[in-house]
Design goal:
Keywords: Membrane, Transmembrane, Transmembrane helix. InterPro entries: DUF6544 (IPR046674). The chain crosses the membrane at residues 6-24. It holds the Pfam family DUF6544. The chain is of the alpha+beta class. It has helices at 3-42, 61-70, 155-167; strands at residues 80-91, 94-105, 110-120, 123-132, 135-142, 146-151, 182-188, 191-198, 201-209, 215-225, 230-244, 247-257. The protein is globular, with a radius of gyration of 21 Å. The protein contains 3 helices and 12 strands; from the N terminus they run H-H-E-E-E-E-E-E-H-E-E-E-E-E-E. It has a 6-stranded antiparallel sheet. Strands 7-8-9-10-11-12 form a 6-stranded antiparallel sheet. A hairpin with a 2-residue loop joins strand 4 (123-132) and strand 5. It has one domain.
Length: 262
């Protein structure tokens, strides 16, 4: 064998070892995520209540009309949710495609978001964003191995993740009914404020409604942003309402930080 052959074999061995390490770490991460999801769903309270018009008493007018529009009489209260998502994620000055599976529990409020972001061909970053047991966290791992993003549990992070849960309740709107932990305050004829407290965390968002009695926007002036350890305005947009399992929900959504520097 000549030197080039030895080098080629060495490179091949290194590549095989790296692939092996990535596969082992992927298995371990999958197992951890599976455990987090199972724990989330196991602790979810099972309600047998059904929606009636009486549930809307005392709510601000736009909230009442929205819930009356998207829910049908007799609709069972939702206890857990599983969503499949695909979209684009803006990172490092470019848009990256992602696919995700997200699980929610309603009581107690919680979620596990398990996403794969395509950074380069055959190179993905696995992102796990969650709020569970009153604690929020985020972790991103290149090829399920190298940590490239992390936000550990803190009072600020807990409230930020609870705000995400609250904004996404448009996908399981019985969670927005009275008695589900959310307090509603009227703002104007097209806006109401929702506040949710859970353990030590609190989230408060403005919900905006259109003339079709749909939630089209949620907003807060101060959501914790772990990248720079600051509080920044944050907005979510929703559209394309369609009926799924008897409930009207938006099939398209977009969220953004409203930063001074873009």
């Amino acid at each position: 064998m000549n030197l080039k052959t030895y080098i080629g074999i060495g490179v091949l061995v290194v590549i095989v070892c790296l692939i092996g390490v990535a596969l082992v770490n992927q298995y371990r991460l999958n197992r951890k995520i599976k455990g987090d999801v199972e724990e989330l769903l196991k602790n979810a309270e099972t309600k047998k209540d059904v929606f009636t018009g009486k549930d809307l008493e005392g709510l601000p007018r736009p909230v009442k009309e929205y819930l009356d529009h998207v829910l049908k009489e007799g609709q069972p209260y939702i206890n857990t949710v599983r969503l499949k998502q695909e979209g684009k994620f803006y990172v490092q000055d470019s848009w990256k495609s992602f696919t995700a599976t997200q699980h929610y529990s309603i009581e107690p409020p919680g979620f596990v978001w398990n996403a794969n972001i395509d950074f380069f061909p055959l190179i993905t970053v696995r992102v796990v964003d969650m709020y569970k047991d009153g604690k929020g966290s985020l972790q991103g791992k290149l090829l399920s191995t190298l940590t490239v993003a992390e936000a550990k549990t803190s009072p600020e992070m807990n409230s930020a993740e609870l705000a995400r849960y609250l904004s996404e309740a448009v996908w399981f709107p019985t969670a927005l009914l009275p008695g589900q932990g959310i307090e509603w305050e009227p703002v104007d004829e097209n806006t109401a404020r929702a506040t949710l407290q859970h353990q030590e965390a609190e989230a408060s968002l403005l919900f905006h409604f259109n003339d079709q009695n749909e939630i089209t926007k949620v907003h807060t002036e101060e959501r914790y942003r772990q990248e720079d350890n600051s509080f920044q305005p944050w907005t979510g947009y929703f559209e394309n309402y369609k009926e799924k399992n008897g409930i009207l929900i938006p099939l398209d959504g977009e969220v953004e930080w409203n930063l001074d520097y873009g």
